[in-house]
Amino acid sequence: MAIVDMTVIPIGTKTPSVSSYVAEVQKVLERYSDRVAYRLTPMSTLIEGELSDLMEVIQAVHEAPFQAGIKRVATNIRIDDRRDKEVKMDDKLVSVKRKMD
Which stretches make up the Thiamine-binding protein domain (predicted)? Predict the structure, then answer.
């Protein structure tokens, strides 16, 4: 199980707002919800699942702004792939919170 932190940046939009593009990315992710879990944050989207599924999802998400007419897209990804045990997004948060007590 891997976790990906992903930011899709459409370049050349008509306004500074990108929320409509973010909404389209979330729609793409919903189509894959049977294979990956995802969470929108104010600055990026987190997805978790098997690495092969995540790579497929990343490609589909990267394509979303092109489908909306954007001619250039920059997608940043950071992959946390831990193979000694299965760790989910919430597990990582619980671990940190326990150490704060």
Answer: 4-97
